[in-house]
Every structure is written in C-alpha cells, then in structure tokens.
Amino acid sequence: MTGLNQSTVGSGSSSNSRGGMVPPFLCECGNYSVVRTVKRGPNIGIKFHGCPLWPNTKCEFFRWIPDNNKLDNLQLQILEANTTIAQMEYEKKLMEEKIKKLQTKKDNLEEDVQEMKNELCQMRIEMMKSSRNERNGTMALYFSWFFFSLVVFWLK
C-alpha cells in the first residue's frame, strides 16, 4: 500500500459503523494491526487493517474491513428475498388447497353427471317400453272393436 496517504485511526481494536468492535490482527512484524481509511483513489473511504508502523516499516500487512453498509444491504436483500419466497410458498400452499377442493368438486360433479346419464338411459328404456305398450294397447283396442263389429254384424 505504498504511495497512498492514509491516516492511522487507532491501534488495537476500534469500533465499526455498527458500534461493535473490529477484531485486531497480528501483522507480519508481530504488532496488532490498526484500522486505517483510504484517503485517495477508487477505494476512498474504505477501511482496512494495516501495520501500525507503516510507512516506516517494510511490513506490508493489509486486510480489507467489510463495508457494513454493503453487508447490511446484502442482508436486507436476502431478507426481502426470503420474505418473498415465504409469501410465494404460502400462496402456493393456498393454491394447492384450492386446486384440491376444485378437483374434489369436479369429481363429485362427474359422478352426478354419470348418475344423470344412467337415469336418462333408464327413462329412455321405460319410455320405449311404454311406447311399445301404448302401440300394443292401441292394436288390441282396434282388434277388439273389429271383433265386436264382426260379432254384431253376425248376430244381425
């Protein structure tokens, strides 16, 4: 990290943006690292662990400190995604229950339709029988009138 002008924030451990403590690391020269902040360049404002003796040492210990805002944003995105998944799973469960109820209703209606078809077939059979009986009755009536008229004609 030579060439960048960073300032020492403190030695040992220091607090992070959440108010907690950032654990110190032992650097290559055996000292506890300090937290520094990048002052120039594309990483400006990002904190990192570095040797407390820098720049007056050849120790090049360096470790980024995770950006808690980015971490918080990612955790929030994960929480939102988990919430969305939970909502979708709940809606899926409701849909499956609704589908099951509709399937049961469909099955019952199919049974009712089949019963109605059977009743319709029975009614057609009875109608054909009664139609046949009506024809037979009509024929019997004609024959009886015919025989009656023959008997009346013969008796005269």
Automatic annotation (TrEMBL):
Segments crossing the lipid bilayer: 137-155
Annotated coiled-coil segments of the chain: 71-126
InterPro entries attached to this UniProt entry: Znf_GRF
UniProt keyword Membrane present: yes
Pfam families linked: Zn_ribbon_GRF
Residue ranges constituting the GRF-type domain according to the UniProt record: 27-68
Keyword Membrane applies: yes
Source taxon at top rank: Eukaryota
Keywords annotated in UniProt: Coiled coil, Membrane, Metal-binding, Transmembrane, Transmembrane helix, Zinc, Zinc-finger
PANTHER family, sorted: ZINC ION-BINDING PROTEIN (PTHR33248)
Protein name, entry field: GRF-type domain-containing protein
Species the sequence originates in: Spinacia oleracea (Spinach)
Species classification: Eukaryota, Viridiplantae, Streptophyta, Embryophyta, Tracheophyta
